[in-house]
Amino acid sequence: MEIEYSESQCAPKDRRTDALGDLRVLPDEILCAVLVYLTPRDVARLSCVSSVMYIICNEEPLWMSLCLSNLNGQLKYTGSWKKTALDQLNLPNEYQETCIKPMHFDGFNSLFLLRRHYRCYTTLAGFSFDDGNVERRKDLSLEDFRREFDVKKPVLLSGLADTWPAKHTWTIDQLLLKYGDTAFKISQKSARKISMKFKDYVSYMQIQHDEDPLYIFDEKFGEVAPGLLNDYKVPHLFQEDYFDILDREKRPAFRWLIIGPERSGASWHVDPALTSAWNTLLCGRKRWALYPPGRVPLGVTVHVNEEDGDVNIETPSSLQWWLDFYPLLADEDKPIECTQLPGETIFVPSGWWHCVLNLETTVAVTQNFVNSTNFEFVCLDMAPGYQHKGVCRAGLLALDEGRYEDAKKVTLSAKVSLSNSDLTRKEKRIKFCEPVEEPNSGKAATWTSISHNVHDQEFSYDINFLEMFLDKGRDHYNSLWSSSNCIGQREMREWLWKLWVEKPGLRNLIWKGACLALNAGKWSECITEICTFHKLSFPTDDERLPVGMGSNPVYLISDHAIKLYVEGGLEASLHALGSELEFYNMLCKVDSPLKNHIPGVLASGILFIENGSYKIEPWDGKGVPNVIDSCNLIRKKCLEVDFPFGVGSKRHFEFRKAGIDISESISSSECSRIWPYIVTKRCKGKTFADLRDTLSWEDTLRLASFLGEQLHNLHLLPFPSLNASAFPYSEEEIKYLCGNGSVTDKLSIPTEWDFFIRTLTRRKKDVSSRLTKWGDPIPSFLIDKVDEYIPDDFAKFLNIFEDGKVGKPCSWIHSDIMDDNIHMEPSCVSHCPTEHTLDADAMHNSYVNGYHDGGGEVTSWRPSHILDFSDLSIGDPICDLIPIHLDVFRGDPNLLKRFLDSYRLPLARKISQHVSVDSDSKFGRLSYITMCYCILHEENILGAIFSIWRELRTAKSWEEVEDTVWGDLNKYSGFC
């Protein structure tokens, strides 16, 4: 569509007032911003309302947003964004818009639309001047690079790509010949995952006129086009990368293929986790603008969430910034600039703001990295809290008055004078999301601007300065994890542990990073106190860091293991230890064979700080420790049971937690310096997680049989009476947590199932929003259908009938048998030390480096112990199959079959005079029940499913997913 504006000697009447009615008070930019939230059909209808609405509703940038926000998958551009969006609706031919004559609209003008139109059609041929702010160097040695530039300033390097095949083969024409049918990921503002075949993207580039063109920015290019990885190599200056110690699937995104047309680019940002980056250009020209850390560019706002430290940057597109904001800058406020030419590599240091504009069609490759110079900054950025994240990006603007005064006293930077006009614009560029109570709402909902005077003070990007702004009260293990962090919470812990084990020469540096990210110094003090109290060996240097990626700090010291319970806050920790101690008590009471495959308990208690000193109160799970009495965490009636923080109380706690916001479940500040702990005998050997890739198939089958046998023993173990009267909830609390009219109120349900059903009912209420938040790789099509799949009646789901008979067994469940919670020891070993000759050092080396002695090698491993019973619960034993099948077996049906052959217990029961569980009803399918548990799980189980079975990302129904993952369970009859 074309729109022509005619000129007349007489000024035409302004048609905007009549055409927009009451909406005329809104600026055009607000109207356009609102329209992107409508559906394409509604926008098309709205365009018929008036002439002005017709103009606004036919803007290509609007239809680009509509198209991308309603697409999830591959995109094929069909000449215009409106046509592409309408093609997605599969409209009949008679409804497709036909070519019409240009339309004339006198009496309407819009500076906003004119500027946007200009950005769509401007050319950048003369936009490449280079003042030479960025130094250009050739043949730079690693020593000179570290001394002059690393974490100091950017540099343009030539010659690093001279020997790459990519220098000659990464042109659009040659890439098109080789990878035309390969789909690459597209970078755009929509949260949707969008890709395009390269041949379709090239066609798009040739005909598009977008103000912010689509940009290939693909971190998975090495997987979809592995040949590209052979065309370049990491330059010698950047080969040190501490993230490469992680397995590929756990490593955060670090390399990207970048292809884009003129006017495309990357808007202002700081690279994730304060990593450094190199970017090599193979084709075209790029214009770069950079600011040092802490200096927020004009027009950019930094949002930092107080709850989880999530960082969000609000910024114009790179083209808009250069056209609309750059001309407003005084010379002294302009960024460092350069024009990058083909074959040149630019280095961007940690924490530096940068913006890139493609002056013509470009092809480039970039990688982010963590080395010894920026390691501490990366660890700092992933520490819990929010203020340090704001300071790293926005400098002293992120501070309130009190913290700013403290900063002035310690910073060693030179003083500089800032003009009042500079202060005015800078004060508006840092925002924190503060929890503000609205009427009838307890949720944080308001953005509040933090501003202050920043006179005569220069920001210092120094780790000793920046760590001042860490929130020492926040604990890494139970604080909310920011979605903007480049790596998960558990992966962060595993990363530091692997570095500690495999790079002993860097331990001083790694310890500093662990103190920043994990508060490792505090946990080390706690462990020392426990060792002193129980007269245990103190940690060696090898043992100073918590091991692995567990959800609580665990230390392996000599022949014992110490675990501090911190995840979820004090109340959750007490229930975790209390349930575990109750479980061990039951094991010994009935002399279960399972006790031979669980580490023996040597000690347990409560560590706390009182009057600035550490103290310990031993606790075996019975009664309430004195230090806990004052925290008001348990009802008086609960004291009538032997284990007041045992599994019964834990079930009620989990039920309550399922109905409230997670932040409310964390204990009060006066209880935040109390840590339950347990000391167990240390197992020799290795975890299955460490051995998975080296085990023989026979050993893996033996493991499956072992798990079946031990789960048989676990699920036969009698569980304590769950007396509901001992843990009462009022009717008002039940209605709040479960809602009115719960089906469980109409039946006589055994206590052990009552809260289980109520918890499932509560989780179903927000299942769609929870899955949407988790997002990829869960297909959005299936998320839309999840409410239809999950039952409303969980009593029927569990085959509970009016007389109280239940068609499901109930038992203790471990809930977390994963590859790092299974221990294995060597067998059939030549020249291997015997159990009696192992000393502490040998046991440590066996855990870390493999189990060998001299020339002997391990030829076989046998499973020996199941670890970590802190997630114990009472419920459906099927729940234990979920982590075993998905994490331990990785979906292998042969291992599941071997497990079930050894398990030999019924997973469902037939009840006389009632419909049998093997009827045609979906409630009779074990696969259906298990799939529902996966969907309702508080952890992202579905993410694992769609990662293992990638073909299910195109599944048409939940039944298809169910049958693929759990269908084999329907063949299992069990043994009564």
UniProtKB/TrEMBL annotation:
Cellular location(s): Nucleus
Residue stretches making up the JmjC domain: 223-386
Descriptive protein name: F-box protein
One MF annotation (Gene Ontology) recorded for this entry: metal ion binding
Cofactor(s) listed in the protein's UniProt record: Fe(2+)
Family: Belongs to the JARID1 histone demethylase family.
rRNA processing as UniProt keyword: no
Main location: nucleus
Keyword Nucleus assigned: yes
Cellular-component GO terms for this entry: cytoplasm; nucleus
Matching InterPro entries: Cupin_8, F-box-like_dom_sf, F-box_dom, JmjC_dom, JMJD6_ArgDemeth/LysHydrox, Kinase-like_dom_sf
Transmembrane annotation, as ranges: none
Entry keywords, A to Z: Iron, Metal-binding, Nucleus, Oxidoreductase
SMART domains in alphabetical order: JmjC
F-box domain mapped to chain residues: 20-66
